Description:
The chain has helices at about 5-20, 25-45. The chain is mostly helical and about 90 residues long. It has a domain at about 5-50.
Amino acid sequence: MIATKRILAEMERQLHQARTTNDEQAIREALAAIRSLCEVVLGEETIATQPVVQQAVPLAQQPQIHSLESKPLVEEDANGGSIFDF
């Protein structure tokens, strides 16, 4: 287990970094790090009390994967099996 004081010190460092930069991406990264650190501390308390729930995605909602070996589209003005035919 990581000491809570060490996690709080890292949170303060990340907060200082977020306050002193003008880069929006760096601010978002620092805030995400703070959120993760909060989850580490709070997660230790709630992991045992919260059941893990996994939701199944219905088959109709899953993304369709198309094979690269499908038959090419044959069109009147196409020039054969060129990879540049759209």
